[in-house]
Amino acid sequence: MSSVEIKSLDLQFASIKVLQNLNLTIPKGEFLVLLGSSGGGKSTLLNCIAGLLEPTAGQHNEHPPKSIQAGQKFVADIISAVMKSPNWPRTALFFTYDEHGGFYDHVPPPAACPPDHQLPILASGDKPSAFDRYGLRVPLILISPWARKQYVSHQIQDHTSLLRFVQARFDLPALTARDANATPPMDVFDFSKAAFLAPPTLPDAVIDASFDSRCPDLATTHFEDEAATGK
What we know:
By secondary structure, the protein is α+β, with helices and mostly antiparallel strands. Helices cover 23% and strands 10% of the residues. It has one domain.
C-alpha cells in the first residue's frame, strides 16, 4: 500500500516538529488533522497538543466481528513513536474511540447539554428526540509523561471535552453550547511530577494472519453503504 512519511509532510507550524521527529509511516488515505501554535511561550505541555489520527475504515478498524489485532498494532505504533520522540517530555496524546462498536453497556447514557437549537431530522414513526443525551461510554486514555499515575477519572466527559481542553490551552472560543459546557480532562494530569518522563516499554503488538479469515471485515461494507445512502 502507498504510504507517506510524516516527516516529509509540508507542515505549516514550527511547533509541529514533534511529528517530524516521529519514526512513523502513515498509510495513504489515513485522516490526519493537526492544530498547532508557533508561539515560543514556556508551557508544561507541548505547543502542538491537538491532533486527530484516525484509521482508515476496513484496514485498522476494530468493529466486530473483525479481528482487533490490526487496530491494536496501529495504536501501539503511534504511541510507541510518540514516546520515543524527543518532544515526549512536553506531549499529551488522547486515545479514544468514535463510538462503542455495538457492545452492551449497563450504564444508561446521562443527559447532555444540547449543542444548539437544531433538532434531529426524523423519519415517519421515529420517536421524538433531541440532541440532549450522551451516547454509550467509550474509553478515554491519556498518554503523557504528565499522566496521573494509577488514576481512573470519574468525571462525566464526552468527545467535546477534548475540544474544551484544546480551547482552554489555546484560549479559543467554544464552537457550540455542548463544548462550552464540557469538562476538560484536566483531572487526568499531575503537573507536580512527571511520573512517566521515562516512558514504559510497550509489549509487542502481534498480528496473527490466521484470524483474518475467521473475522470478516463488515465495517468496509458498512461505511460504503453510509457513503452511498447518507445514512
